[in-house]
Amino acid sequence: METTTRPAPDRPARAGATTPLAAPGRRVLLLGAGTLGAGLALGTGTADAARPTLRRGSRGSAVTSLQNALNRLRYWCGTADGSFGHLTQQAVFALQKAAGLARDGVVGRKTYAALDAGKRPSRRITSGSGFEVDLSRQLIIATSGGKLAHILNTSTGSGQRYYSGGRWKTATTPRGDFRMYSLHSTGWQSGPLGNLYRPGYYDRGWAIHGSTSIPAHPASHGCCRLSVGATDMLWKGGWFRSGQRVLVR
User: Is 163 within the bounds of a domain?
Assistant: First the structure.
C-alpha cells in the first residue's frame, strides 16, 4: 500500500506583540489602539487570534462562516451547517491544493489567508461546459457556460503497480480530451477493482465516480474519485450526461 508523510498542521500565527515599557497614560493607550487597527487591517495580531484553528469535528459559527466563504469561491461543501465534516474537509483540501499549501485539511493562518485572497485554480475550459481534471493539483474543476461552477477535491491514479485480469498494471490516469459515453445513474456499481458510486465513464474503463475514500493525494487505480455527496450534487445538476466533456491534463 502507498504510504505518505503527513504534513505539519497549518497552525495559526503566535501572537508576538509586547507591551511598551512606558509610564501609563494617554500616549500608551493611543499606541495600543493603533496597533490593534493595523492588526485588523493586515489580518495579523489580534485579528488572527480571533480566528480559531478549525478541523474535522469543529462546530460553531466560525465553521459556518468558513463554509459560506468556501461555497462563495466555488469550493463546494454542501449546506453551511456549522459542522466541520467530510464535505467541508474535502473543500478545504481543494482550497489548499489550489493555493499550493500543505494538504492537511486544517484551517489555520495560511489557509485563512488563501481564503481571504480568493485563491482559485486556473482553468483551460473557459467556454462551454465540462469537467477539467488537474492531475498536478488533484482537482476537478467544473465549468458551465464558460463560468466556474465547482472546484472539487479528487484522487486519481496512484502510480502504483497492481494485479488485475491476469497481469500487472500501473495505476495511471491518462491525459486527453474525452467525452462521457456510459453512465450508471443509481447506486453503487461493482467492478473488478472495487465499487464505484454513480460513475460516468469517459475513456474505456476510466470514470469520474463517487467513493468513500478521497484522500488529498493520488490513491486510485486510475479513475477520478469524488465524495458521494459531490457526486449526488453533480448528478442532480445534470453534469453527468452523455457527451459531457472531460479534459484530463
Answer: yes
| pLDDT single digits (tens) 20-40 | 333 444 333 333 333 333 333
Contact 118, 98 (CB under 8 A): no
pLDDT band at 15 (very low <50, low <70, confident <90, very high): very low
Give CA angle at 223 (123, 115), nearest 5°.
Answer: 40
Q: In the chain, how many domains are there?
A: 2
- Distance between CA 187 and CA 89 in Å, rounded? 23
Contacts of 208 (CB under 8 A, 6+ apart): 131, 133, 140, 199, 200, 202, 223, 224, 226, 240, 246
Higher-confidence position of 49 and 182: 182
Q: Which DSSP letter does residue 245 get?
A: E
On whether the CB atoms of residues 202 and 173 are closer than 8 A, the answer is: no
In a domain, 17, yes or no: no
CATH code, domain with 147 = 2.40.440.10
Cβ atoms of 249 and 124 closer than 8 Å: yes
- Residue 125 included in any domain: no
Q: What is the DSSP letter of 29?
A: H
Indicate whether 94 and 144 sit together in one domain.
Answer: no
Backbone angles phi, psi at 62, to 5 degrees: -65, -35
Task: Tell me the C-alpha distance between 218 and 124, whole Å.
Answer: 21
Read off the CATH number of the domain in which 92 is found: 1.10.101.10
Whether the CB-CB separation of 224 and 133 falls below 8 Å is answered with yes
Specify the long-range contacts of residues 62-67, CB closer than 8 Å, at least 24 apart.
Answer: 63/88, 66/107, 66/115, 67/91
State whether 156 and 241 are in the same domain.
yes
